[in-house]
Write a structure and sequence with these properties.
Length: 157
Amino acid sequence: MTTLHSVSRRRRALAAAGVVSAGLLVLSACDKPTPLATVTVGTSSVHSEATCGGEGKAVKTADLAGCLKGKGIESIKVDPDDTVRFGVDPEIADEGWTILMNGQPLTDSSKKTYRTVPGSVFFNAQYGASGDSTLVSIKEGEKDVTGLWSFKLEKDS
């Protein structure tokens, strides 16, 4: 009877080890999500994972134009009298980040996790805006671009 009991215990131990190994294998196959960037206007917010990059590696210059034309970009309505708030995860802030408007720098690089910009800027021709919507991107990296998070700001007046 003792032999049967120890064999049964060994089988359970092997089965448990197999389940743990399978679980670790499944978890290792999962991609870690990229850090998030958030745009808030009044009480409305949208957030996004990286449109391109966001994994700490430099994005190739040839790929950047395509990143700025990505599909499925989150949009948010902006009254020109509102303040637009940009927030980034600390991993983005640690690398330095810049707000781009239609692909051109709108702000200097910052290592803060939060910035504000008047809503009127995004619809002002002086800053390169045209029409009732503007593509705004958050560029991670001070020298090399390591990530882009893009949002579409739509005029709400």
